[in-house]
């Protein structure tokens, strides 16, 4: 029997609880925490890029703990093999048959730590899992558990021992975010709180995986007017026509922008998407998928973000309702 649909009040209580639980661990990062919850409820995946030590992995672990999810952490290294992630077939002497031994990807929340330290071949092992939510091995498909979320962390490319993620891999991530450094007050609070204990030990699950599935279903039913859909398409097309870009936003990016906007609207207590939901998320959803011309050089990320900002400023905002 399917789970009953979630009422708006129950959804709001659940999301408030998750935001509060994670916020108690990741101080001074309300924007990033909200974005992570949006990605989870929109059935996407999250890429967090920043220097070591700013709380990327703690964010993922706190989110998993708040929803009572099974979590596995994969430390990406140059010698990591694809089978370490997806699993391998192992011969069972008792049955004299090969059996599939599931890899670390078979979890509700997968933390791909420092994903850009592994080789491109190993990075690509996540492609099918992230898009199809399954793993194929020896002619058989193995479904991943639901809900399923990949939270990948990476260090800036200029750091030693890193490999750039290929375009196909980047396109699987709904958003790319930067944690940034906490402000002075939040950093001082962190010193006091973590002197004698790990704050992750205090995170209690607010909901369970079955509740998250119901929350995802709630978000799916948020209304998107045709004018809003056209607005998202126009933003994507504007990046494809931008003079500074070789590659603009993909159709997958447009789809994920709308899905993220629906989750954001639901977090704000609305059953419908407004243009501001789309515009506010365009940078996080689009910028990591864009490829600037070679002359951008080391400022490629800035060029991508600037192109998205110009698209948002140039595309007419639709008038919905009235």
Helix and strand sequence: HHEHEHEEEHHEEEHEHHHEHHEH
In one word, what is the shape? globular
Classified by CATH, the class of the largest domain is Alpha Beta
Q: What is the CA–CA distance across the termini?
A: 40 Å
CATH topology of the largest domain: Rossmann fold
Question: Residue ranges: pLDDT <50 for 5 or more in a row?
Answer: none
What CATH architecture of the largest domain do you see? 3-Layer(aba) Sandwich
DSSP strand content: 5-15%
Biggest beta sheet summary: 5 strands, parallel
Order of strands across the main sheet: 2-5-8-1-9
Please tally the helical runs, counting DSSP H or I stretches of 4 or more residues.
Answer: 13
Overall structural class, as computed from helix and strand content, comes to alpha/beta
CATH superfamily label of the largest domain:
P-loop containing nucleotide triphosphate hydrolases
What Rg, in angstroms, do the CA atoms define?
A: 20 Å
Helix content: 40-55%
Instruction: Round the mean pLDDT to the nearest integer and report it.
Output: 87
Kindly give the count of domains. 2
Explain what you see.
With 322 residues, the protein is an alpha/beta fold. It folds into two domains: 15-198, Rossmann fold (3-Layer(aba) Sandwich); 222-322, Magnesium chelatase subunit I, C-Terminal domain (Helicase, Ruva Protein, domain 3). The chain is 43% helix and 15% strand. It has helices at residues 8-23, 30-41, 56-66, 82-86, 120-123, 127-132, 167-170, 184-193, 209-220, 226-240, 251-267, 275-286, 300-314, and strands at 46-49, 71-75, 87-92, 97-102, 109-113, 134-137, 140-143, 149-154, 175-177, 245-247, 291-292. The strands form four sheets. A five-stranded parallel sheet has the order 2-5-8-1-9. A two-stranded antiparallel sheet has the order 3-4. A two-stranded antiparallel ribbon has the order 6-7. Helix 10 packs parallel to helix 12 and helix 12 (275-286) runs antiparallel to helix 13 (300-314). The longest helix has 17 residues, at 251-267. The two termini are 40 Å apart.
